[in-house]
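TA notes, week 10

Several of you asked for a full example with nothing omitted. So below is the full record: structure tokens for the whole chain, then the designed sequence directly under it. When grading your own attempts, check the secondary structure regions first.
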């Protein structure tokens, strides 16, 4: 018996998609592969490199603070995606599952999560600045805009809350 949409929650499936995106594409192995094997001057190469934005690592060559900030950003993207999926009302107000509002709420949640994760992680850098925080939030929002449609598709069709 296949588990259909009856057992799928929109926030749960969107958070799972965010976790997979961060774990797989934020890994040091994927980031190194994308850096070495893609052309940053092509649209496909640019997008494949963008997928590795919330990098996490355990490289001993970096300072402990840099490793923690990078990992914090990756963790915050997932946690904030879950939070925003619960808080955004589009899916909750939809009359039927699978409507465009669920897709847009999932996509928006990932945009907000990327922006806020970058903003918060910047506060823990060695010399944080307001300009650095704004630049980081912009890059996080850009990442969420171009990758968040995947989270939007994952949250499409799920039920909200308790029945």
């Amino acid at each position: 018996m296949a588990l259909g949409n009856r057992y799928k929650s929109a926030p749960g499936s969107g958070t799972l998609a965010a976790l997979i995106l961060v774990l797989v594409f934020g890994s040091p192995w994927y980031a190194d592969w994308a850096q070495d094997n893609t052309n940053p001057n092509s649209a496909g190469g640019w997008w494949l490199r963008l997928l590795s934005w919330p990098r996490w690592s355990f490289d001993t060559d970096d300072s402990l603070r840099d490793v923690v900030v990078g990992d914090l950003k990756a963790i915050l993207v997932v946690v904030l995606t879950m939070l925003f999926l619960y808080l955004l009302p589009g899916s909750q107000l939809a009359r039927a599952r699978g409507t465009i509002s669920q897709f847009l709420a999932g996509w928006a949640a990932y945009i907000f999560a990327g922006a806020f994760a970058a903003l918060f992680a910047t506060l823990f850098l060695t010399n944080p600045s307001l300009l650095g925080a704004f630049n980081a939030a912009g890059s996080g929002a850009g990442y969420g805009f171009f990758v968040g449609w995947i989270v939007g598709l994952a949250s499409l069709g799920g039920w909200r809350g308790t029945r």
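Residues 1-5 have pLDDT under 50 and may be disordered. Use that as a sanity check on your answer.
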